[in-house]
Amino acid sequence: MAMIVPAHWAEAREQVKHRGRRITVRRYGWSDESEAAAQAHAQARTREALDAILAGADLPRRERRTNYGVAGVPIREQIVSRHDEVVVTRNSYGALCLNTPDVLFADIDLAEPPSGCVLPLAALAGLAAMGFAAGFALGHWALGIALAGVVVYAANAWLLRRRRAAHAGNGGAEARAFAPIEAFATAHPGCHLRVYRTPAGLRVLAMHRRFDPQEAEAAQLFEALGTDPLYALMCRLQHCFRARLTPKPWRIGISRRIRPPVAAWSAGQATLPGRLAWIADYEARSAGHAACRFLRALGDTTAVDPQAERVRALHDDLSRAHADLPLA
Asked: Where are the domains of the chain?
């Protein structure tokens, strides 16, 4: 299994004087073995980057400090538990996430209902001008301004109602998001897809086979289902698929951030009293919520990869996908 969430992290720094300029390069290193191995890895990566820069390569001098994996750097989050190849981590805002190297999850966002001003700019300007002209003709520029506002407000309210009705039609945003999933299952009778409702969309779990996050078939499946493009990109960069297992804190009444609010996890944070207190409050409030709810299975439900089934059982249990609880 490719390492997707290392246990140990370190940073190395190299500095040289080159053509009259001082060049400083920093790189992270990681390891599942020990801090010493992580430091050795960091030093090797730093030396490699420095040599490339001295040879003329256009590389950043320092890597961005982040929890969420980027190109070349794996996910940097607290490891909460390991389940064979699956790793459960606590992300940067405190929720638990499932990370798997080969069982495909896809996140699909629902279209938001129309809101605010939906009038095209040209129509907005034209209606405002008509209202102002009518009011001015009645004798006062102030009346023109007032009528312009009334006309624009009334026209926008009418158009907004029509667009909201269209958004809610044909089963609404959920039905429209579900349609390409059903179409894929119909066109590929050998597949087995489980569909879950999340607070803002749908989650799909592929049960019939394992996927490499960088293989063409995974990208094609993502595209066919209408997967969130950022999620698809991060799966490729991180070499894993992810699924949030517990609520987002702000959805269960927690406004303060997990402590400490830093951009990169380090093992020393695990026992900080402020962090432990935040987690205890979060877990107490999370008890009454689920991260997703199972809706239905599509395709050949007898096609079940054994590893996918193990991941499904863990996911459904920790996300409380079969509990009658509000989503958060």
From this structure: 8-63, 79-110+171-319
